[in-house]
TrEMBL record:
UniProt domain PD-(D/E)XK endonuclease-like: residue ranges: 38-286
Pfam families: PDDEXK_1 (PF12705)
InterPro entries: PDDEXK-like_dom_sf, PDDEXK_AddAB-type, Restrct_endonuc-II-like
Region (Disordered): 19-41, 290-311
Superkingdom as given in the UniProt entry: Bacteria
Keywords: ATP-binding, DNA damage, DNA repair, Helicase, Hydrolase, Nucleotide-binding
The protein, known as: Recombinase RecB
Length: 311
């Protein structure tokens, strides 16, 4: 797992999780604590990174501050999605860049908390630099793919499938392309840099998760999984086979069992890593001298005391 960056920016895994969290939150309307009922790639990654982080995000639903990197990711995703509204011949880099101000206005309307990001920037200099970086990411996309030659079958597709065990998997796929032969390609945009080869398995986890959902929904194994890294101008592809999807299903079932046990016992262990530096919840984390909020779900009587200690 990538744990740090040279320039002090949040690592791409943290940015990706925040971008997907913002997209997924738009589909959720659950204001109070209830036991988790489904799993998304972002939340599965949270649990693997730190069970206590998962608890704070999924069960306590503690608020998190927007970050410049994650908000820029959300903005760029919106621009790439909306560009396909235009006729193929008009899907140019200047056209895409011209969508940025409108999509930024829309983001401020739908998520007013992003205004905090530039509250201390009265001259707008930092905002201008930030928007300039969003432009560069959008421009770079045109060196990696040619949207005038693509006709996505789906964009920002919400998918949900129930496994035989009852586990519901859900997520949002940035783009689905379907060839005339019926072959399916799942595409995800990343505004960060491509991972080093030894970390590519972590990056592909999310894509295999989506492939499993598509397989379970449509009974089709996607032909290709494609990660488009706008930060470094690279494309990572993987052609899954059925055994990959069966393996990821087993992994998710084991993960879900661990989540179910923690939910029942209230035993959510912190797992500190360098990623803690980008965690919004240090004030509630015992690793940093904090105390978690009272556990909001019912606990078996004998476990109540242990839960307070464990978290
Ligand atoms: S600060 Fe680190 S250990 Fe604590 S909840 Fe956040 S990610 Fe987990």
């Amino acid at each position: 797992m990538e744990t740090s960056t040279e320039d002090g920016a949040p690592p791409d895994a943290a940015v990706d999780a925040s971008v997907k969290t913002a997209m997924e939150s738009a589909t959720e309307t659950v204001p109070t604590a209830i036991p988790p009922a489904s799993l998304s790639p972002s939340r599965a990654s949270d649990f693997m990174q730190c069970p206590l982080l998962y608890r704070f995000r999924v069960i306590d639903r503690l608020p998190e501050k927007p970050s410049e990197a994650a908000t820029r990711g959300t903005l760029v995703h919106a621009v790439l999605e909306r560009l396909f509204d235009a006729p193929a011949a008009e899907r140019t880099a200047p056209r895409a860049k011209s969508l940025i101000p409108g999509q930024w206005d829309r983001l401020r309307e739908t998520r007013p908390e992003v205004l905090e990001l530039f509250a201390d920037d009265p001259q707008g200099e930092r905002l201008a630099r930030w928007l300039g970086e969003a432009e560069r990411l959008v421009e770079r996309w045109f060196t990696l793919e040619d949207p005038s030659r693509l006709e996505p079958a789906e964009r920002e597709l919400f998918v949900e499938a129930e496994l035989e065990s009852g586990l519901r998997l859900r997520g949002i796929i940035d783009r689905v392309d379907v060839a005339p032969t019926g072959e399916v390609r799942i595409v995800d945009y990343k505004t960060g840099k491509a991972p080093r080869p030894e970390y590519s398995e972590g990056a592909l986890f999310q894509m295999k998760f989506y492939a499993l959902v598509v397989w379970r929904l449509k009974n089709v194994v996607p032909r290709r999984l494609q990660l488009v890294y706008l930060g470094s101008g690279e494309v990572l592809t993987y052609d899954p086979v059925l055994a990959d999807l069966e393996r990821i299903e087993r992994k998710l079932l084991a993960l879900w069992e661990a989540i179910r046990r923690a939910t029942e016992t209230g035993d959510w262990r912190p797992r500190p890593t360098k990623l803690c530096g980008w965690c919004d919840h240090q004030a509630h984390c015992p690793e940093f001298g904090g105390t978690p909020p009272p556990y909001p779900l019912p606990l078996p009587r004998r476990d109540t005391a242990a839960a307070g200690e464990g978290a």
